[in-house]
Specification:
Elements lengths: L28 E3 L3 E2 L8 E13 L6 E6 L8 E4 L3 E8 L8 E2 L11 E2 L4 E8 L3 E7 L10 E7 L12 E10 L4 H9 L11 E4 L10 H4 L28 E7 L6 E5 L22 E5 L2
Parallel strand pairs: 3-6, 5-11, 12-14
Antiparallel strand pairs: 1-10, 2-9, 3-4, 6-9, 7-8, 10-11, 12-13, 15-16
Protein name: Plastocyanin-like domain-containing protein
Keywords: Copper, Metal-binding, Oxidoreductase, Signal
InterPro entries: Cu-oxidase-like_N, Cu-oxidase_2nd, Cu-oxidase_fam, Cupredoxin
């Protein structure tokens, strides 16, 4: 998923001269899709109002600090139709010095100025191609801290999907470390270099289980750490399906370092597309697909 990200910047609401200050605190949100910002007659404008801040969360049943949007981890899904205008009003509530967001894609504090703590910036862009994308923080280790979410673009109104399906699921894959992103960043930038090691957990839609077997959930084991009630932040998400129906899986990898291999062996599957928009195929059989972050 690539291309140019945000092609035009809007003026931050709280700065008359946005580039007059040092670009010091940055929280870059970039969307992985090509966009244009010119207006389009007949398109619909989708409005989103976000606040980015630190939160305590237990993605894998171990509490830590994440970057969340509107109290959510991962961030809320942006959904629009091809041709729509997306308008995101983002407020930076990261009060710690050194944390924030640049306006749009580019090298933070060099090619882009930043959204300082307490400031608000409006992203406005047109989505042109239907597909499955994602947005993420692009400054420092913000993506590893959980600042990401899905961006789904449906076909334009009046157009038909190339394939029939009865329902769909959005699957957002990510890697997760218990060590804070500040410790990770220090190790990666130190001399000598300190490798942060393999992630403690792999998350699906922000949920995973660390050092824990789901077998306890289905057996008479005395172990209680995996006997979920369903409302825990780390409880597995259950995708409920009806036999003999066709489901579309929108799979995105937002991993920081891990390359993943997703396998579905219980159903006939076909790949409808990938990061390359023109790549389309339909092969029935079990799905075993390598997914890069």
């Amino acid at each position: 998923m690539g291309g140019s990200f945000f092609n035009r910047i809007l003026v931050p609401s709280s700065s008359a001269d946005p580039c007059s200050r040092a670009c010091r605190v940055a929280l870059l949100i970039c969307c992985c899709l090509s966009v244009l910002v010119e207006s389009s007659l007949g398109s619909k404008t989708r409005h989103f109002k976000w606040e980015v801040e630190y939160m305590y969360w237990s993605p894998d049943c171990v509490e830590g600090v994440v970057l969340g949007i509107n109290g959510q981890f991962p961030g809320p899904t942006i959904r629009a139709r091809a041709g729509d205008i997306v308008n995101v009003e983002l407020k930076n509530k990261l009060t710690t010095e050194g944390q924030g967001t640049p306006w749009a894609d580019g090298t933070a504090s060099i090619s882009q100025c930043v959204i300082n703590p307490g400031e608000t910036f409006v992203y406005r862009f047109k989505v042109e191609r239907a597909g499955t994308y994602f947005y993420h923080g692009h400054y420092g280790m913000q993506r590893a801290a959980g600042l990401y979410g899905s961006l789904i673009v449906d076909v334009a109104k009046g157009e038909k999907e190339p394939f029939h399906y009865d329902g769909e699921f959005n699957i957002l894959l990510s890697d997760w470390w218990h060590e804070s992103v500040h410790e990770q960043e220090l190790g990666l930038s130190s001399k000598p270099f300190r490798w942060i090691g393999e992630p403690q957990t792999l998350l699906m839609n922000g949920r995973g289980q660390y050092n824990c077997s789901l077998a306890a959930h289905y057996s008479n084991s005395s172990s209680s750490q995996c006997m979920f009630r369903g409302n825990e932040q780390c409880a597995p998400q259950i995708l409920r399906v009806i036999p003999n129906k066709i489901y579309r899986l929108r799979v995105t990898s937002s991993t920081s370092l891990a390359s993943l291999n997703l396998q579905i062996s219980w159903a006939k599957c076909g790949m409808l597309g990938s990061s390359y928009p023109d790549e389309t195929s339909l092969n029935l059989g079990s799905l075993n697909k390598e997914i890069m972050g």
